[in-house]
Amino acid sequence: MENYVNCSHFPGNDKMIASFKHLPISRLEFRLRACEEFEGYPILGSALRGAFGNGLKFAACTVGHGNCNKCLLSPACHYTNIFEPVAEKNVPRPFVFTVPAPPLNPRLSADNSLRIRVAAGAEMPFGMTLIGNDTIRRLPYFIAGVTNLAASGLGMSRKRFFLSDATSGGRSLINTETAGRPTVVSLAEECESRIASMELNGKLALRMITPVWLREDREFVEKPDFFHFVKFILKRLRNLFEYYADGPFDIRINDFLDASREVQTLNETIWKHDFDFYSNRRRRKENQSGLLGEMVFVGDGLSVFLPLLIAGELLHIGSKTTFGLGRIAVSGKFAK
């Protein structure tokens, strides 16, 4: 029998959902049309993020020297507030890219020649999630940044695109009648909507769609268990709430961590994926790793963690989330 989950039926979820109401988010979809054939690394997040940063700075910067560290306008600047906080270096960025993700497997992961190709005239979609009301109010600068990103080109060869559309909640953000009117919801609303149609029968599959990089005691976690996912999602939420929420992160973290240790791994098919990307800041090619694949967990208390896991789906987990890394998906259905 199918068991459809209502998150309000489980102890502990009410307080978590109540906290999630304090974090506004807006999910955007962009469509870039290629002016010429483009070829890039399979994980496009670094290229998109770097080009977006350049495009955003071009749109927002009003001084000639371009040095944010010595600029008197930095505290109020759209670029620094969105992309490069100068007051506190550890501030999490208030956006997440959702990048095209090819269906990888261990054999393809080992193939260094793997590339994404976009034909001239074809469209390349990607998403962005904006976090916090102050960030969402800066929407025109996000659109301007992506417009400039497209015009300046992607990759080392700077292949050009143009922005064919930007939407939110099915409405165009560049159409004259609906421009600048994004759909804004709370993290709670997104979680409740997603959970309402989920099936759960004491098992839960967690799929890592883009490389997940978790570090514990400065070491890469190669064999994560359920506790690690709960720990790092809670850590990310706590950081985002500190800077972008309208209310407190009122969750008893230790209770969830203790309960997560009771959840067992039933089976797993995971592997380490190594990939290259070009760093605009360091002006060189660099390497990054992360886990891909699926893990299946089993436990009587899994339903308590659903709001938390769905938040991880939306906001990603681990390092380099703004690149689009750390994208996960949870389900009561499993790969065969």
How would you describe this protein?
The chain is of the alpha+beta class and 336 residues long. The chain has helices spanning 13-20, 45-60, 78-82, 106-109, 133-136, 139-152, 187-196, 226-244, 253-260, 306-315, and strands at 24-34, 38-40, 95-98, 116-118, 123-131, 161-168, 171-172, 185-186, 203-212, 215-216, 219-220, 264-279, 284-298, 328-331. The protein is globular, with a radius of gyration of 20 Å.
Structural descriptors:
29% helix; single chain; globular; disordered N terminus; alpha+beta
Head-to-tail CA distance between termini:
20 Å
Could you tell me the strand content as a percent range?
25-35%
Main pleated-sheet profile: 6 strands, antiparallel
The dominant shape is: globular
Radius of gyration: 20 Å
Task: Detail the poorly predicted runs.
Answer: 1-11
Please bin the fraction of helical residues: 25-40%
Q: Output the structural class.
A: alpha+beta
Order of helices and strands: HEEHHEHEEHHEEEHEEEHHEEHE
* Number of β-strand runs: 14
Number of separate helices = 10
**What's the overall average pLDDT, rounded?**
87
What is the fold's blueprint, element by element?
Blueprint: H1 13-20, E1 24-34, E2 38-40, H2 45-60, H3 78-82, E3 95-98, H4 106-109, E4 116-118, E5 123-131, H5 133-136, H6 139-152, E6 161-168, E7 171-172, E8 185-186, H7 187-196, E9 203-212, E10 215-216, E11 219-220, H8 226-244, H9 253-260, E12 264-279, E13 284-298, H10 306-315, E14 328-331
Antiparallel strand pairs: 1-5, 1-6, 1-8, 2-4, 3-5, 6-7, 9-13, 9-14, 10-11, 12-13
Helix pairs in contact: 1-7, 2-6, 7-10, 8-9, 8-10
